[in-house]
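Is it possible to get an amino acid sequence alongside its tokenized fold?
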Amino acid sequence: MAFSNLLEVVSNVDKFPYQRDISSTETIHNYTPLCHESRVIGNILPDVMAQLRIYNSAQSLPPFVIENNVTFAPWVDSVEKRTEVIKTMMDLWRKEKTFTALAGWRNELYPVYGNSAREDNLAFVIERAASALFGISTFGVHLNAYVTEKDGSIKMWVARRALTKPTWPGLLDNCVAGGIAYTYSTKETIVKECDEEASIPREISEKASSVGCVTYYTYTSAGLQPETQYVFDLELPSGVLPKPQDGEVDCFYLWSLDKVKKSILDNEWKPNCALVAIDFMMRHGIITADNEPDYIDISYRLHRNLGFPTPTKCIK
């Protein structure tokens, strides 16, 4: 179904309630916070919470303390122990096919933040496919690849997701995108994904400019997904064409921004990737306060304060 305006596009993604209604019977309001060091690091919906209670009570040494929230038991007192506790539980749930989300197992670890004892704020790491079960705040990179025509107009490279993709097959996407795995930096990830997804060589992808973040809190059948996407822009030189390489992209199109905007309103994009394209058009003066009545609300919704702990680094 097509959207009538861009605010609807954004609201379709950033849809987790901004305020919790404890009187509501809706599942989305009945979550249990996952906490560490008095900080909320995730949220757990009732179906996952029920299985977590069963698992915890079956252990001779329960790894969780379950009250009004969920915390790790006192003996689970290190990054390694927290990681192992989560892994052991996920391995069992995957084996028993407890949640369909785990069918998309990636063997890719995501960092979970909220540990003041460490310089990098790392609390533990978790399998990517399991992060939504706990409403863990995740981080990725998205690249807007574009060209500037002789008349000064901008055209954007748009990817068509492969039909074999397990999520959102065949929909439109940013030129390059990917989750930030444990130990990878944002720039390392964008360079890696440029090569794997679009055959863009390192000497070009390293010139990608970090231009900010897009944040939103969504949910799907997999669970809760508060996400931060680090956004990069890359103006491709004449003659450099992105080409599919790893099977995740079917093909690439070079489109005017008017066509990009129309395709977004026609609901042809992977939902969160449409937000990154909207952000690009706002930053490049295509969508402005003078031609978009919802300009401020769209801007707010593209930069939601998620309230979860974030990565920290000691810059030397």
About this structure: The mean pLDDT is 96. Residues 6-15+138-302 form a domain with the Nucleoside Triphosphate Pyrophosphohydrolase fold (CATH 3.90.79.10).
